[in-house]
Design goal:
A: alpha+beta; 3-stranded antiparallel beta sheet; 3 strands; B: alpha/beta; Aspartate Aminotransferase, domain 2; 7-stranded mixed beta sheet
Chain lengths: ~130, ~400
């Protein structure tokens, strides 16, 4: 049912936890299936995401999507990260079964929320 | 890697003796029981012997047993067949919210045919109240279908109390006993039911064969049209190897029900007690009135499919009522009917023990599952918040 990539990320999830002194935090819950994800990021020079960690309550697809997404955005600028969609995450995982596509929404949405949070904090600090 | 099968509620391993009994009917005994010649006559004899075995196992008469393709077909035949046969008498059917889909969805289909259906709610243990049943009865009630033992949480329904009501009111009572045969005593006289469904693969028999018990004098319209087999109620050339297998399997499964139940209860209780030590674990279903082999537990802050896959990696087979395993995004209708919040239903795991399980199997699960739960909880944002709150 799941690709090898999904099972690999489920068995050995990358970047689990919470970034210490994070710059942005995004929380996303799926009202449809109850899955929840919390993502924290640290943004360095040149608006590059230099650290990212996740915590997820959910099925294998949700955990693997979270893990894959953190791997994909690490080292990317926030502009590049904002362009990332749930489809990119699902594709990178070698596809997800149709009923599980919404699980990858969680990852991309939480990422975008974390970036929004970072930008808000930055704006608040500047003013 | 050690392999532990604890999904006997899904299906069971065919008993070697059952397979041995079936094999000749795939080889030299290939005749059609409807044929007059010797090839037909010898299998006809085997067919009737299997019918006698099935009847004996549930204290019925052989002529009250109708072989089907399984539990689902038996349920369909019972509900559709009786409802249509009694249409002139009334149009109301009573069932419960925790039935298997083979009953629940048939009842929903009957609504489209113009029948009115009451889906009785259940309590937190998944049990139907006989009082609520009595209150649901109307002048129009012709049929009730209440399962004997729930497939997900193992709760045993008070069928004897319900049949006292249906007999008093002249209502036909069907019970889905698919999970019960071989695990608890099943006696159609004592239960007071008019129809009862069973499936061979749940008691170490083959898949694709089941039976419907129909009390003498109970009207059932056919659902399938064809030849004269099974007294024209269920036409189609009989699945002889399967039926022979069912006969052998039910004979073995009911030879010592108290003995098997004691074995399963011991394993189940050891499993439940061991898993409860993990913490934030809840037993689903009735603490006592439950199938001897059923342990259904909810693990807070983790999701069922993640648990199942992690167990599978350790060689352990179980099942879950989580939405993520249903393909529908909705958690189990049984757990929701019991009033369980979505998040608890998500973390549910069902272990269903069978006769081949050993104490070593239970010990192995108790060894591997705590680590799995801890790993998943360490990843879960919900767990952190739960601990803080």
């Amino acid at each position: 049912m799941y690709s090898e990539k999904v099972m690999d990320h489920f068995k050995n999830p990358r970047n689990v936890g919470e970034v210490k002194d994070y710059h942005g935090k995004g929380e996303m819950g799926s009202t449809r299936c109850g899955d929840t994800m919390v993502l924290t990021i640290k943004v360095g020079e040149g608006e590059v995401i230099e650290d990212v960690k996740f915590q997820t309550f959910g099925c294998a697809a949700a955990i693997a999507s979270s893990s894959m997404m953190t791997e994909m955005v690490l080292g990317k600028t926030i502009q590049e990260a904002l362009a990332m969609t749930n489809n990119h995450v699902a594709e990178a995982l070698g596809g997800l079964p149709a009923p599980k596509m919404h699980c990858s929404n969680l990852a991309a949405d939480a990422l975008h929320k974390a970036i929004e949070d970072y930008l808000k904090r930055k704006e608040a600090a500047a003013s | 890697m050690r392999k532990v099968y604890m999904d006997n509620g899904a299906t069971t391993q065919v008993d070697e003796q059952v397979l041995e009994a079936m094999l000749p009917f795939y080889r030299e005994l290939f005749g059609n029981p409807s044929s007059l010649h010797s090839f037909g006559r010898e299998v006809k004899k085997a067919l009737e012997e299997a019918r006698e075995k099935a009847a004996l196992a549930i204290n019925a008469r052989p002529e009250e047993i109708y072989f089907t393709s399984g539990g689902t077909e038996a349920d369909n035949l019972a509900v559709q067949g009786v409802a249509r046969a009694l249409k002139k008498k009334g149009n109301h059917i009573i069932t419960s919210a925790v039935e298997h889909h083979a009953v629940l969805d048939v009842c929903k289909a009957m609504e489209e045919e113009g029948f009115k259906v009451t889906f009785l709610p259940v309590d937190e243990y998944g049990m139907v109240s006989p009082e609520a049943f009595r209150e649901a009865v109307t002048e129009e009630t012709i049929l009730a279908s209440i399962m004997l033992a729930n497939n997900e949480v193992g709760t045993l329904q008070p069928i004897e109390e319900i049949s006292a009501i249906t007999r008093e009111k002249g209502i036909v009572l069907h019970t889905d006993a698919v999970q019960a045969i071989g695990n608890i005593p099943v006696d159609v006289g004592q239960l007071g039911v008019d129809l009862l469904s069973l499936a061979a693969h749940k008691f170490n028999g083959p898949k694709g064969v089941g039976a419907l018990y129909v009390r003498r004098g109970t009207q059932v319209n056919k659902v399938t049209y064809g030849g004269g087999q099974e007294k024209k109620v269920r036409p189609g050339t009989e699945n002889i190897p399967g039926i022979v297998g069912l006969g052998k399997a039910i004979e073995l499964a009911t030879a010592d029900v108290p003995g098997k139940a004691a074995h399963l209860t011991f394993l189940r209780d050891k499993l439940i007690q061991g898993l409860m030590k993990i913490g934030d674990v809840k037993l689903n279903g009735h603490p006592e009135k439950r199938l001897p082999g059923n342990a259904n537990l909810s693990f807070a802050f983790v999701e069922g499919e993640s648990l199942l896959l992690s167990l599978d990696m350790k060689g352990v087979a179980a099942s879950s009522g989580s939405a993520c395993t249903s393909g529908s995004l909705e958690p189990s209708h049984v757990l929701l009917a019991m009033g369980m919040p979505h998040e608890t239903a998500h973390g549910s795991l069902r272990f269903s023990l069978g006769k081949y399980n050993t104490e070593e199997d239970v010990d192995y699960v108790l060894e591997v599952l705590p680590e799995i739960v801890e790993r998943l909880r360490s990843m879960s944002p919900v767990a952190r918040r739960g601990k803080q709150g």
